[in-house]
Design goal:
300 residues, mainly beta, Jelly Rolls, 5-stranded antiparallel sheet
Length: 300
Amino acid sequence: MPNHALNDTANESVSIYLRSDEAEIDLSTSHKKFYLSELISVNPDTNILVGLTDFECPYTFYTIRQDINDKITLGFPTASFPTGEFRTSTIPTGNYDIDELLPVLNALTCFIDANIVLTFSELTNKLTLTRTGTYTTFSFAITTTCGTELGIPRNIMINPTTTEPNTLASPYILDNTINLAGTSCIYVKIHNLGIKNLNSRGDSDGTICKVIADVLPDEFIYYRPAEYFYFMTNKDQIREIDIEILDDQYRPIDLEGGVFSLTLSLHFTYKRFQRYTREYYLRPPPEIIKESITSTPSTP
């Protein structure tokens, strides 16, 4: 029998308890596919509603992550290449404060080859780049992935194929403050159930929940909703569940061996037909006009 107020069918609601280390397919530490041994199926007149009712995840991922936000591509003119050349360096993976990060940045090949020294102001929380020598200009390429962390806004990055790397002049104070606080939240996404929640671009991307990451590294992030929300799926059968968790910029997370778990609650409700109230329309919708014509008795 039904066991939830949302459930108005004869089917019982179902809770699905998932652990990332028990997934059938590991696409990454934060992207998993689960396959249910028992098919969940409903009649054609029934909708399946899904909600995230529980989630926990260890804060084991780093502020700087490999192949996600660890690349700096710097362009600068030299005597050998007056129109500019580009060098790419990689920041080692890890959690940093500015005292740890600054010497790492100054040891990167891209800055050494350009004769650039980075300094940090505790008054403004911004980095300053100073280039010495004959040439004093440089640029960041759009392939730089750690702009948020270093305070490099997207609008000052250039396309290396169309622009010479001399758009910034030394000494240059980066426009934004550094951000080494890590992600502010985790987005839980289900790729294959047709969930139609929207992101800030207005795209429907399958996100079922935003979980606030209000703990320190090496602590657990818990989902504590003020209210549970349930969303209509576009399925009448469920066997596969494709789940991914992303950071606050929709980038993949590497949990470094950490295990996340969650609970999906499924409820079942009968499909409703679209209803029109005539007094709210200057002209009735075509469906009402057609219905009115077909239901009018013929004149003898």
